[in-house]
Every structure is written in structure tokens, then in C-alpha cells.
Specification:
alpha+beta; 2 domains; single chain; 3-stranded mixed beta sheet; Dna Ligase, domain 1; Arc Repressor Mutant, subunit A; two-stranded antiparallel sheet; about 15% strand
Length: about 150
């Protein structure tokens, strides 16, 4: 299995606005297309976690001819640039959200309730995993499964 590429956005620009992200895309040699602009607008306007299908539906309200495969290609490129992250929140499809608001997730196996958890909560775990096993974790990519307070 190949090692995932590190995001290139770290020192490339401001990923907190649509125009800032478009500037990052330009600096990395990417094209500014109408589908990319509409996808970014959907990500910035909606906040939260959305599947590729949710985002495609939102984009297609304004541009019905934009295909789901175009959305997936754009999501892949935006993730490579470090602008967005995807997470697996249980058994459903991957969800996407802006990297500027990255966080961990707790998902209740009983009722499905999802709780966003601040990065600070995972720092100790990440430090311990690195020290004991030489393993670097990505708390944004996965959900910690368990039971919420209501279901415990």
C-alpha cells in the first residue's frame, strides 16, 4: 500500500475563504473551474460533514450538468492540497469538511449520534502512540466508536 501524500497547503496560503483556497489551487498549478468554485462554495456555506453525494446535489442545484465523478476528482485534489479532510464516521460513506475546522469524532454505536471532539483531546493519545509504537495517528480520519451518555 502506498504512503498517502502529505498536504501541500501548510505554507501555501489562506484556506479559510473560497478565494483563499482558489489562490492555493492556482499556486499549486491547478485550474479554477466553475465546478471547483461551486464545490468550494457548498463546503464553505454548509459547514459540517457532507458526503460527496450531498455536495454533488448542492452543486447540481446551480449547475445540473456537473457529474458526481467531477465532484470526487475535485474533492481528491482539494484534500491533496490540505484544504479539506475526509472522515469515516462509522459504517456510512466518507464525509468531507474543511481542514481549517478539523477535529476528531465520537460516534455512538447504539444510536448513531456523532459528537465533534477537539484536537486537544487526542494530543495525549497521539503522543503516546508515537512514543510507544512509532505510530503517527490522524484523529481527523476516523471516528472513535463507543456509546454516548444517553445510551450508556
Amino acid at each position: 500500500m502506498s504512503k498517502p501524500q502529505s498536504p501541500v497547503v501548510a505554507d501555501s496560503g489562506d484556506a479559510t475563504t473560497v478565494e483563499g483556497v482558489l489562490e492555493i489551487v492556482r499556486k499549486q498549478g491547478g485550474r479554477i473551474t466553475s465546478s471547483r468554485r461551486l464545490l468550494l462554495r457548498a463546503l464553505f456555506d454548509s459547514k459540517g460533514h457532507h458526503t460527496a453525494e450531498d455536495l454533488a446535489a448542492e452543486v447540481q442545484k446551480q449547475a445540473p450538468d456537473i457529474h458526481l465523478s467531477t465532484i470526487y476528482r475535485n474533492l481528491d485534489e482539494l484534500e491533496r492540497l490540505g484544504v479539506i479532510v475526509h472522515a469515516h464516521l462509522g459504517h456510512g460513506p466518507a464525509t468531507y469538511h474543511l481542514a481549517a475546522s478539523a477535529h476528531g469524532h465520537f460516534v455512538c454505536e447504539e444510536c448513531g449520534k456523532m459528537t465533534e471532539a477537539p484536537d486537544l483531546l487526542f494530543r495525549g493519545l497521539a503522543k503516546e502512540a508515537k512514543a510507544q509504537f512509532g505510530f503517527t495517528i490522524d484523529p481527523h480520519h476516523f471516528a472513535m466508536l463507543g456509546r454516548c451518555a444517553d445510551c450508556s
